[in-house]
Amino acid sequence: MTTHEHSEMSLDEVGAVETPDDKKELEEELAAFSLALRGAKKKKRRAPTVDANPQALRANDAGLYAYDDLERRLRSLIRKNNPGLDTKRTYTLAPPKVGFVGSKKTQWTNFDSTCQRLRRSPAHVKTFFEVELGAPATIDAAGRLTIQGRHRQAHTHIQAILKKYIAAYVRCAMCATPETELVRDTNTRLVFVVCANCGSQRAAAPIKVLYRATTRADRRAQRSQ
Q1: What is the residue-averaged pLDDT of the chain?
Q2: Potential cystine with 101: which of 105, 175, 192, 202 (Cβ 3.0-4.6 Å)?
Q3: What is the CATH number of domain 98-212?
Q4: Of the candidates 168, 171, 160, 141, which has an alpha carbon nearest to the alpha carbon of residue 96?
């Protein structure tokens, strides 16, 4: 039977560092272990990824998305779904061309083109001007508005009334664009200004109908019917 003889070793010599390199390596391991326990070892922050495709997002190690990536994706989706959002649109309207017919009438020659530009019915605009001017008006076959009476400073006065009409029945209160239309609610009989640009709507005040006395021509037209 073969016996192996071992040299005796004290407990103090177990795991002892014999060389300077071993001592340095042990110190480095202890320092790294101590930092790991205290959480002092910080990870480098990853910069937000920039992808050629704005729809592609990359999450970090924790499964979260960077704020810059989310903001870039949101802006790209808004531009994609609203192509004309970044373009600034200007709206122009020709000023009223006003003259006099004889000595007792005032005529607005480009009345029909103004109503088409505003996308409002000539009858609605005529009713508003009749109430504001306090005088009856008629529309001839050429689309010209003839107002009874020779109004002083007619051009300035009609232009001011036209701005008032646009503010009340054309311009959107939210986005200030004239891309609106008048919609009547069949249940409440209220008229709403509905915007085609932002989708908002507001109630429009009704136009008070101007009192008009019945003339002989009106009675003759009623008898002929």
Answers
A1: 78
A2: 105
A3: 3.30.30.170
A4: 160
